[in-house]
């Protein structure tokens, strides 16, 4: 499948004051040809596809689908409510993928690691899940922020960086380039983040006891690649992802 570029609609101003129609207007104004939808858009907007067609915008994906596999009571996502049985989690994901295979056109799912995730906090772990699910419509999402945030950055450290972070990142990217099949890369996300002036620990204005530090950092400090204040090695990660 040819490479398709798009922007996440939440990046087109995510304030409730900005309607979905306004976001599409902004995408068209800045000559963006594709968008990645947020699931809340599906709940809030009817005739969404027609609106995108009117703006000559292609919908390349819907982000994000979560709180699904391995839930003990199928409604709660706290760690203590997640099963530690990998077979149950894989069965859930295979069932979802099989449902997608029955659709026409086929619905594809990409599995993403989050730097603070309970079960898959590295790209290696998400790749392992993809390989074990073993469905043609189930692939991997490579997110530059989450790759960097796990091995290079540390929002709870005074420097904003993990010890030997760049060395660990280089090693991680070498493994990634050699391990991931090109056909299994369904989505690549390029995004940076700002370095905090103070460690994100208790007492910091962004600190939330119920959230891991990296999660709070992610939700408050994301930047476009190249935007002033970004410090993650996005270029190196992007080069690796597109050389797979």
From TrEMBL:
Domain of life, per lineage: Eukaryota
Q: PANTHER family, alphabetically?
A: HYDROXYPYRUVATE ISOMERASE (PTHR12110), XYLOSE ISOMERASE-LIKE TIM BARREL DOMAIN-CONTAINING PROTEIN (PTHR12110:SF21)
The protein's name: Uncharacterized protein
Origin species: Pseudovirgaria hyperparasitica
Source species taxonomy: Eukaryota, Fungi, Dikarya, Ascomycota, Pezizomycotina
């Amino acid at each position: 499948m040819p490479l398709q570029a798009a922007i996440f609609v939440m990046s087109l101003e995510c304030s409730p004051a900005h309607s979905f129609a306004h976001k599409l207007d902004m995408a068209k104004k800045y000559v963006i040809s594709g968008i990645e939808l947020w699931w809340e858009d599906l709940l809030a907007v009817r005739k969404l596809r027609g609106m995108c067609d009117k703006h000559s915008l292609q919908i390349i994906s819907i982000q994000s689908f979560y709180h699904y596999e391995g839930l003990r009571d199928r409604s709660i996502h706290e760690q203590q409510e997640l099963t530690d049985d990998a077979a149950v989690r894989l069965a859930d994901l295979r069932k979802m993928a099989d449902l997608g295979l029955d659709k026409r056109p086929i619905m594809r799912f990409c599995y993403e690691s989050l730097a603070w995730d309970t079960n898959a906090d590295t790209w290696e772990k998400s790749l392992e899940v993809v390989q074990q699910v073993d469905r043609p419509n189930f692939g991997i999402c490579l997110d530059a922020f989450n790759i960097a945030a796990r091995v290079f950055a540390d929002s709870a450290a005074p420097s904003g960086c993990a010890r030997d972070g760049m060395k660990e990142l280089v090693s991680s990217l070498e493994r990634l380039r050699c391990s991931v099949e090109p056909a299994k890369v369904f989505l690549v996300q390029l995004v940076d983040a700002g370095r905090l002036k103070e460690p994100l620990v208790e007492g910091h204005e962004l600190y939330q006891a119920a959230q891991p530090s990296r999660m709070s950092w992610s939700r408050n400090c994301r930047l476009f690649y190249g935007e002033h204040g970004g410090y993650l090695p996005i270029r190196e990660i992007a080069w690796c992802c597109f050389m797979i």
